[in-house]
Amino acid sequence: MKLKKDIRSLSLKELCSFFEFNNYPAFRGNQVYNWLWNKSCFSFDEMTNISLELREVLKKDFVINHIKIDEIQKSNDGTIKNAVKLFDDLLVESVLIPVKNRTTACVSSQVGCSLDCEFCATSKLKRIRNLNPDEIFDQVSTINLQSKLYYNRPISNIVFMGMGEPLLNYKNLIKGIEMITNEDGLGMSPKRITVSTSGISKLIIKMADENVKFNLAVSLHSAIEETRNKIMPFSSKFPLTDLKEAVKYWSDKTQKTVTYEYIVWKGINDDSKHIDALVSFCKYSPSKVNIIEYNKTENDFFIPADDDIIKKYISELEKNRIPVTIRKSRGKDIDAACGQLANKLKQ
Is pLDDT at 78 greater than 50 in this prediction? Predict the structure, then answer.
């Protein structure tokens, strides 16, 4: 039996060539491409400006391996968590996060994760494979439809802060973002997209050299090597000195400010030396800090720091003219922490 190819793995040029090879007008490729990406079509039967005969030709040679929502959890604060089933029955997560003036889509880049951050539920899921560009695109497209359905507005922002390390799926990540931002796709501005990395220095430099237009966030959590290696063991392969230089290179090249994501835990990074180290790290290149309220997992070692420590962090950062914001945890009444829902459904 012939294994059918996912039609969305073809470029526009390849699609047009397929039609020409089969003695159909090349412009049919443009029509199909528009259905696949601009209209997020999941079925050849829905392509109404394509003849029935031609649709049957497409069905014979191709499939559309679209995602399906396996489970939805809705929080009292409006957050919607999706367990997303892929064509091979593997699961990832995506989240719709609404606030007053915008709606953010938080999407995954890998099935599981190859990193070992102790505080993250996704690290308990073995990395099985990278997501394809169309699977990345589908998450955004699906959340966009959910936002219109539940909040009567399209999504305004996208963050790659779901399952997986985006930069370890670099090629597919970039291709997925290209389709999200392309006028033939969803047409979103790259300025409204943020890619969050745990700090793969050489790939941050690669992004800078390729002059990407989206924003960069770095999951930092400590500017002291010993502490960071303890809570994020993989980071011993990516020293903070290298990360600091890579971020400076990125900022110099792109003229953009990096966001450092930072969680403060009791007994881990809740003292003056960690505050001073963060301030010093931030001064090296244009940056801002997003202090994140910790969404607890089953690891009791990580306990949110007291409010007075958070206030000290904010005070010292502001004193040194480093912009700082607080990101409140969303979806506390559901499995909203990254990897929680996938872990539960895996059992």
Answer: yes
